[in-house]
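Changelog entry: the Exodeoxyribonuclease III record was regenerated in this release. Current contents:
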Amino acid sequence: YSFFNPAEKKGYSGVAVYARKKPVSVNTKLGIKRFDKEGRFLELKYPSFTLLNFYLPHGGRQKENLNYKLEVYREVLKRVEKLKNKNAILIGDFNIAHNEVDLARPRQNRNNIMFTPEERKQIDLLLQLGFIDSFRHFNNEPGYYTWWPYAFNARERNLGWRIDYGFVSKAISKTLRKANIYSDIFCSDHCPIGLNLG
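Regenerated structure tokens:
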């Protein structure tokens, strides 16, 4: 089975899920008009768990874009709070490096988009709801990133950011076996990540 939520504007953004089993329901709306037009969300409900796939806004260089990003995060947190005691998996591009270990040059980027205090707090709030950062559950080492700018040979020099995450609720975390970053796979400026549960 395959499920897609493309942006209304061609070539802009979109998310997809490929699944072996048919879900009970599929939702593409978060409830914010601009966000819902941008193809950034898929929610698949199964009898035993819920999967939420995100491509959250970057935040841009202008204040209004950061405000939009924070508005989206407020809505995301409201949505996932309802799932905190259930089996839930949140996966995708969250466009925030949470801690200094999650980017190659934290000092130089302290007040830059994707690493501002306001943005990093959103991941704090998600963890406070009881969700677990699956990769950090197994690995606290630096040097593991999921996105590299195209400029300055950043990927070759591993000057990256970890902004793609798999979060799991406490309820389902006991089934978490592995969380990987596949940095050797070149398909875009991001690399794939993976979770094994079972």
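The beta strands are 2-6, 14-18, 25-27, 41-45, 50-55, 88-93, 132-133, 164-168, 176-181, 193-197.
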